[in-house]
């Protein structure tokens, strides 16, 4: 949450980069935006509540021009969405700071600084960073910005990625990272910092990922000094980012969510390719994966939100096909619980961004308790979770910009299915012939997904009716229950319609009381062994006047009738049916949001990467 950028340039005005970079990072937070630039005179700052575009216009009107600057797009944590709370924060005219993360001891630090005479102008935790650095910078008269940032950081508890400039230090930018992502990007005559690579990719592909505890001093010519968490001078590898610029552009689509829904046949095919080309081999997960997989007897999956629903789906596969006992837990709950650790239980974390703080902390907690083995399923190369994990499988969804996760979810499912078959083979539970069948199913999957995408016009007609509703129920059974959960989450996230999901058999134990003719009930009803049970549950709804919206398969004996609307996805997709049945609920949410006129890609109160608790 929150995106930060910064740059020191030898020749070009820094404002172009700051505004372009912030526009790319806007999905990380969009409550307010701001930049601070060292001009021919002092540091000048422009901040606006709302979107980067507004701030950019104001910066242009103010004619901001300079070679060094920092910028920020905010997802509010401490303090409301106001201009005084927008970043950059300044200490006098001297120090300007942008920050992503949370300083947990900010109250104590604020009191200390107030006692020293500092006056606070915002309610943020970030302002303590600015004053704290100012204090260190000025107190001994040595005016060493790098030393001042190092000394100030030693006082902070919590998570941060920061960029700092000083008015009297026009060619130095200092960056520090602890627990929140931050990278340095190296251009010809420019050095940049950014929360993620999308901000810099139009300028350079050469990036250095900072590690926790790193502090760097940058000039237009690169990294002048870099120390690690122990204060030791260090070097980090320069990597070439493979992110494509096209993946960050909308192209012919109206929204990133729409684009990303439609990219799923390719994203799924790309992710499946790992298993289609490499077979269900342990090495797909890392060099020593076979040894690790042989040393485990159960799995615990930790994740949040949509990624958690991917984990819930995978539990069915892992226990059914690989006979691997699997626990699934919400990361933010797990990390504060007294758990019984088991060194032979593999910890799997699932995360699109790879930087979700709760998931990261849950992994660290599991390791501290004695879990020996960990695997990360992640969509972002070099992000924190894979780096903290023993094994990794990257999904190949490409950049996901829409705040509501779509292609990341379905590709996570492909990866988890590949893991299941791999473990099944290794444990002698999946024969070569069965593995070949699974390979074929994976091969057919992009086509089935495309078929569902072609049902869009029918789904639009439903969406127009949903747009007038205040509530909705989603039902599924067995492996499709997590898909109902995902459908309800998508709907509430982007349409603000209250939606709940239940296992269909649970309805009569309480939620049925909610059903009347104002309550649309979406049912995921594929042609599997539970279809007859689901039909019985639908009768319970119909008998109470509830209107049913049923997604079923082409080959299921299920017909429209009064109060029962049916859309047929292709012939039952067998074991991969949850992936196919995800597409219609994504489309239903997307088109309902369009009909309601909400901001699809940037729903209120949310942000893409959740790097705070
Ligand atoms: C919902 C959504 C969130 C994320 C959750 C975890 O559409 O995107 O629920 O799934 O915040 O994020 P990652 O997967 O990045 O750890």
Kindly provide the radius of gyration, computed on alpha-carbon positions and rounded to a whole number of angstroms: 25 Å
Q: Are there runs of 5+ residues with pLDDT below 50, and where? A: none
Helix content estimate: 25-40%
Any idea what the CATH architecture of the largest domain is? 4-Layer Sandwich
What is the top-level CATH class of the largest domain? Alpha Beta
Q: Major beta sheet, specifics? A: 8 strands, antiparallel
Structure classification: alpha/beta
Number of helices: 18
* Strand adjacency order, main sheet: 3-2-4-1-10-9-11-14
Q: What fold name goes in the CATH topology slot of the largest domain?
A: Glutamine Phosphoribosylpyrophosphate, subunit 1, domain 1
Strand content: 15-25%
Number of domains: 3
């Amino acid at each position: 949450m929150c995106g930060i950028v910064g740059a020191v340039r030898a020749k070009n005005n820094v404002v172009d980069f700051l505004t372009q970079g912030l526009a790319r990072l806007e999905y990380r937070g969009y409550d307010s935006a701001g930049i601070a630039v060292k001009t021919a005179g002092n540091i000048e700052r422009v901040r606006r509540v709302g979107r980067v575009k507004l701030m950019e216009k104001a910066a242009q009107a103010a004619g901001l021009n300079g070679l060094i600057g920092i910028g920020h797009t905010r997802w509010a944590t401490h303090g409301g969405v106001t201009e005084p709370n927008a970043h950059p924060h300044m200490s006098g005219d001297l120090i300007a700071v942008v920050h992503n993360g949370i300083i947990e001891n900010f109250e104590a630090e604020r009191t200390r600084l107030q006692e020293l005479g500092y006056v606070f102008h915002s309610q943020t935790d970030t302002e303590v960073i600015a004053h704290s650095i100012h204090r260190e910078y000025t107190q001994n008269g040595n005016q060493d910005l790098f030393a001042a940032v190092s000394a100030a950081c030693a006082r902070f508890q919590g998570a941060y990625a920061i960029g700092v400039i000083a008015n009297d230090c026009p060619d130095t930018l200092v960056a520090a990272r602890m627990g929140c992502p931050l990278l340095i990007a190296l251009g010809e005559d420019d050095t940049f910092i950014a929360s993620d690579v999308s901000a810099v990719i139009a300028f350079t592909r050469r990036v250095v990922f900072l590690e926790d505890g790193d502090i760097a001093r940058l000039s237009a010519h690169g990294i002048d000094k870099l120390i690690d968490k122990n204060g030791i001078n260090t070097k980090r590898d320069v990597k070439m980012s493979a992110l494509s610029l096209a993946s960050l552009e909308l192209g012919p689509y109206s929204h990133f969510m729409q684009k990303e829904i439609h990219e799923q046949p390719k994203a799924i095919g790309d992710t499946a390719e790992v298993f289609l080309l490499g077979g269900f081999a342990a090495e797909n997960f890392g060099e020593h994966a076979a040894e690790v997989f042989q040393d485990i007897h159960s799995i615990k999956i930790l994740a949040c939100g949509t990624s958690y629903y991917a984990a819930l789906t995978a539990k069915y596969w892992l226990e059914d096909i690989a006979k691997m006992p699997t626990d699934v837990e919400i990361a933010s709950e797990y990390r504060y619980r007294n758990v019984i650790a088991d060194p032979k239980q593999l910890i799997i974390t699932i995360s699109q961004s790879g930087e979700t703080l709760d998931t990261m902390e849950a992994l660290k907690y599991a390791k501290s308790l004695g879990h020996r083995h960990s695997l990360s399923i992640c969509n972002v190369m070099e992000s924190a979770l894979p780096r903290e994990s023993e094994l990794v499988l990257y999904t190949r969804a490409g950049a996901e910009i829409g705040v509501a996760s779509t292609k990341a979810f379905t590709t996570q499912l492909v990866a988890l299915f590949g893991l299941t078959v791999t473990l099944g083979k290794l444990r002698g539970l999946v024969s070569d012939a069965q593995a070949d069948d699974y390979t074929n199913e994976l091969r057919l999957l992009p086509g089935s997904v495309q078929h569902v995408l072609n049902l869009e016009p029918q789904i639009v007609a439903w969406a127009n009716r949903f747009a007038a509703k205040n509530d909705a129920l989603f039902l599924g059974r067995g492996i499709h229950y997590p898909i109902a959960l995902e459908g309800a989450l998508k709907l509430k996230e982007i349409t603000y319609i209250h939606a709940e999901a239940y296992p269909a058999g649970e309805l009569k134990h309480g939620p049925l009381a909610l059903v009347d003719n104002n309550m649309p009930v979406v049912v995921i009803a594929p042609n599997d062994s539970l279809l007859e049970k689901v039909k019985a549950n639908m009768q319970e709804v119909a008998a109470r006047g509830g209107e049913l919206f049923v997604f079923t398969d082409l080959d299921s004996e299920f017909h429209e009738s009064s109060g029962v609307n049916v859309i047929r996805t292709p012939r039952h997709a067998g074991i991969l049916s949850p992936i196919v049945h995800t597409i219609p609920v994504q489309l239903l949410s997307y088109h309902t949001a369009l009909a309601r006129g909400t901001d699809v890609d940037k729903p209120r109160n949310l942000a893409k990467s959740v790097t705070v608790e």
